[in-house]
Amino acid sequence: MHFLRSFIPQALVMSLPLLSGPVYAGPLDEPHLDIIPRTADETARISDVTALPDSFDAPSPFEVNSAGAATVRPRMNADAFSQASGNMSFEDELTFKLGNGLFRKLWVSSPSSTLASDGLGPLFNARSCQSCHIKDGRGHPPEGPDDSAISMFLRVSIPGTEDAGNIKEIEGYLATLAEPTYGTQMQDFAVSGHNAEYRLQVEYTEFPVTLSGGQTVSLRHPTYTAADLGYGPLHPDAMLSPRVTPQMIGLGLLEAIPAADILALADPNDADRDGISGRANIVWSQEYNMPMLGRFGLKAGMPTIREQSAGAFAGDIGISNPIFGDPFGDCSTIQDACVNAPHGAGDVRGFEIDAKGLDLVTFYSRNLAVPARRDADAPEVLRGKQVFYETGCAACHQPSFVTHRLNDQPEQSFQLIWPYTDMLLHDMGEGLADHRPEARATGTEWRTAPLWGIGMTETVSGHTQFLHDGRARSLLEAVLWHGGEAEPAKDRVIDMPPADREALIHYLESL
């Protein structure tokens, strides 16, 4: 793992003070976790249990329990993603439910008689977390002009320079700046007396892809427009990135994967010449004031669930919190009326959601359970599993990890999990590019999406729309959009016998 040193600039390491306590220097450090180090025996056992299979006659041991002991029985209804970790204590279930209440809470504008709920906006994308993460599942783009974009928005930025928007402590950081008028994301709602920033407009162009056996699949290529701009034109160099809300399950387990195990999978220079060159996104943590491994968000732009939650409160709802403290949310300094509008922060709470409230939402988000696999031993699914591995899908969609032993998070501690992601960035080609960097992620790179629970998307969310912007209307369409590093695997899917392709989809539906 000699390449890890390149992630931590020597100047940063040399500048760290000599303290008697722990010194955090970069992405190998995980200050958000209370870790019990692994023994040599445990490390050897983990290597054995996470090795790729060499036989496909039966499911791998423990494969059915996608989240280890935290796995729950699948509910075949819209509440399937809204269950608490299966190994949660009765006492902590109350904390989970309190967090759920805050997650579902509808915020109102200030001033208001409901002092515990005011502070919305002034500009916002939704009034609650649940409004975007409907049933804790996957969002979707607007379906026609009469449908809202409640679970989708546009991130926005302009290129930075060596001196502006850069974080020199992170090698390879791609400098960006907030768009001068519209900030870092576009808000399509506003409280009374303010204009919304825009209306999301999506247009599609269809084109066919011919598969072996004579099958033709039509893919839709989206064009996004920030229409009805409320505060004047965008900067000529504005970079827009469409994002639908991802599913919420298993986040705490992803957070508990050792950073060293994720970084060990990185191969930025493709040293093994397999065409796959996953890279870690290294981001600056606002909470810990240090470089950390990016884990969350479609480009792995956030390091922890708590920071991701705080960023969503600020950017999506306009709610100040201990990490992002501006009571006006994402309003730019040019938007004077927005910056100076009444807000809900005050002497009692300090922020519109305080540390206790943020911790409750974090606990809820950390413990949304992953349902168990379905039909894992069905012959068609086992054949699809073999196709998945032989096609090369597992090169990025890493099947399994074992989480850290943790002192204070029993639900996530030392679990064998099956998320099917390496948590790394991969070049997915021009077809999926948004041409907007995020920390170290380029405009063609995306974090490998976890696949656990993907077969229950229609059950939970009522649709089968996938990828970062929901353009794919089926799992097969999602596969056919893969490019860049995944182009050879996609071509194998196009050329394989139709029966193998069908088995592959059955396998994905079982996850």
UniProtKB/TrEMBL annotation:
PROSITE patterns, per the entry: CYTC
Pfam families: DHOR
UniProt KW keywords: Heme, Iron, Metal-binding
Keyword Iron: yes
Domain Cytochrome c: 379-511
TM region positions: none
GO molecular function: cytochrome-c peroxidase activity; electron transfer activity; heme binding; metal ion binding
InterPro entries, sorted: Cyt_c-like_dom, Cyt_c-like_dom_sf, Cytochrome_c_Peroxidase/MauG, DHOR
PANTHER family per the UniProt record, alphabetical: CYTOCHROME C DOMAIN-CONTAINING PROTEIN, CYTOCHROME C PEROXIDASE-RELATED
Stated name of the protein: Cytochrome c domain-containing protein
Protein source organism: marine sediment metagenome
